[in-house]
Amino acid sequence: MAVGAGILLSRLLGFVRVRAIGSYLGLGPHADVLNAAMRAPNALQVLLGEGTLSASIIPIYARLLAEGREREAGRFAGAILGLLAAVTAGAVLLGVLLARPLVGLLAGGFLADAAQVAAGAATVDRYELSVRAVRIIFPMTGFLVLSVWSLAILNSHRRFFLSYAAPAVWNLAILAALFLAGRAAAGPASLDQLLFAACWGALAGGILQFLVQLPFVLSLLKGFRPALSLEVPGVREAKNAFLPLLLGRGVVQLGGYLDLFLASFLAAGAVAALGPAQYLYLLPISLFGMSVAAAELPELASQASQELSPGFLARVRDGLMQVAFLVLPTMVGYLGFGWLIVAALYRTGRFGAEDTWLVYLVLAGYSLGLPASTSSRLLQNTFYALGETRKPARIAMVRVGVAALAAAGLMLWLDRLPVAALVPGLASREHRLGALGLSLASALGAWVELSWLRLSLGRRLPGFAFPASQIRRMAWVALLAALPAGLAWWALARLPGFLVLAGVVGSYALGYFALSSLAGVSQAERWLGRLRRRPAR
């Protein structure tokens, strides 16, 4: 619960950040630039941090704690911090110095902007703006990677809330920077001013995100001393686990940045549309998939020596059902009510009707892969707890390959069509559907990954069985619950957007829990039991 609460807090503020950026920048060239600039340094953060670092550190650190070797655990954490700081410092320096070729590599379509500006076909050179933005933002990455080191230590001590709530500080810093830039300008702030204010806010937020966790981490460590050494017990083991994880995460990131690269060649606004859609798509992955996977990793790692025991296998199955119970209604909700969600959350300022439809359609494409992406997180962590990191990496390569091949064909075909081809009533025909092809291809790759992970884990653990029948029952319940929610949308249509959203989502959630309970879904009974529970007097 602490993991989910922390993620929920940071994600709610993230919604405010994305809404503010949409209001200030819309889905125009400057929003393209900010999205590309944020994604470029995040490659280093995700490669060295999220998933990779925690999955290589937590099993070793948690095992040392379980064995009562707390001072050795502290020395191990210090050595990891020292090595990580050295690697990220070098990578950040290279990122700043090589910002120009980096932007050309990740957003090659921006390179043509200079010629279009010279010819009068465009007014903004996204490439030059992106280079300047990356040079401001890239140092942020080093501090965000160190924040993931803090997360790994805190999670090993079962302190989940702070580590997952800390990104709220990053969101607040960007919001403050945008607000101050808008107030400081003598007249209306220019889009360039707002863009670079967001970049400086991101840098300040990255620093604060690490510093807010550091005192709590240091209070937990015994025998801690930063060091540049591979000889500290556990460090070589972590390094050996880290390299396959780096490869696996690197392949997944390659897929994400391939989307960015391909989108840069599509009609203007495609890169910007990926941001709000991915934010909504990643919310259930973070809130449900990652929270369950993060909470289970220390427990699975401590039981890894009893991998064939009923308790170990039951924990994996129960985790999959926990994820599915919350993700399946989210997928159905995004498909059925995604337009309402996007309009209520993002439609303001320069973010108009056509922007709303494009983001909704891209979100719908991503949503088709939600159950697969969230379940894969838990299965990957099961492999990591068992000390097997190469298999998930190889499967991730296949996922990215399948998604890339599908994306190349779908995006080019769909980019010929305006959004108005699917929504005839739209007055504008500026945006095209190429970004939808990227999200559909991503969903296909996610299902390929899950299928292969299931087969591989079944061979590794003969007693493991994927709870397919229970998950199918949850899917049918989610579909049935959407019907009365649709009627609520029709009945409340004349009210303001946020009230309509609250009524639809509220009726959908209540209907889903009620129908799940009637259908005998065990997860519903567990949640209802928590709600009925009263604190002891």
How would you portray this structure in words?
This protein is mostly helical and 537 residues long. Helices cover 79% and strands 0% of the residues. The longest helix has 37 residues.
Give a summary of the structure in a few sentences.
The protein is mostly helical. It is built from 20 helices and no strands.
Helix content class: over 70%
**Fraction in beta strands:** under 5%
Q: Can you write the helix and strand succession as a string?
A: HHHHHHHHHHHHHHHHHHHH
The count of helical stretches stands at 20
Q: Could you describe the largest sheet, including whether it forms a barrel?
A: none
Overall radius of gyration: 23 Å
Average pLDDT figure: 80
Structural class: mainly alpha
What's the N-to-C terminus distance? 22 Å
Count all strands and give the number.
0
**In one word, what is the shape?**
globular
- Give start-end ranges of low-pLDDT stretches: none
Descriptive terms for the model:
single chain; 20 helices; mainly alpha
What is this structure's SSE topology?
Blueprint: H1 2-25, H2 29-48, H3 52-66, H4 70-97, H5 99-106, H6 113-118, H7 126-156, H8 161-165, H9 167-184, H10 191-220, H11 235-263, H12 270-302, H13 310-346, H14 353-367, H15 370-385, H16 390-414, H17 434-460, H18 468-491, H19 497-518, H20 522-532
